[in-house]
Amino acid sequence: MAAGEDGCLIRLRMSAHDAHYGGGLVDGARILGLFGDVATELLIRHDGDEGLFVAYDLVEFKAPVRAGDYIEARGRITRTGATSRTMEFEAYKVIGARPDLSPSAADVLEEPVLVVRARGTCVVPRASQRGPAALHEKPRGDRPVVSER
């Protein structure tokens, strides 16, 4: 899944604060939180509103994530209903921590490693949908408000 015109991508480092289990293992829920951020951006770009994440119907944990790893979370909208948006997500490890070498060692991976794959549904209430055309309007904050009487 490539992030581009119809998708988005965020990349960040998992910190020691993110480690929840022994050996610096990061809780899978941390990656699902990243997918929530990706979904929010997708909805803002598509509808001009953050919407609400309703449910995941698929979550697959494929490989461990540890403190010091860099993760790319990617997502795209795969189906658009009247108010629902089905999305697919993938998270890849692109840099791997190497605590076996030193506390600060890391390697850029030749091939990213798929760590989590998921699919979910978000909803944007019809009244909150502004559509792509409205997303490119200039802010009106400096224009005087004219009331009609």
Please characterize this protein's 3D structure.
This protein is an alpha+beta fold. It has a single domain, classed as Hotdog Thioesterase (Thiol Ester Dehydrase, Chain A, Roll). The strands form two sheets. The protein has a five-stranded antiparallel β-sheet, with helices on one face. The protein has a two-stranded antiparallel sheet with strand order 2-3. The radius of gyration is 19 Å and the shape is elongated. The N and C termini lie far apart (53 Å). The C terminus is likely disordered.
Q: In a nutshell, what does this entry contain?
A:
The protein is an alpha+beta fold and 149 residues long.
What keywords describe this structure?
single chain; 149 residues; alpha+beta; two-stranded antiparallel ribbon; 7 strands
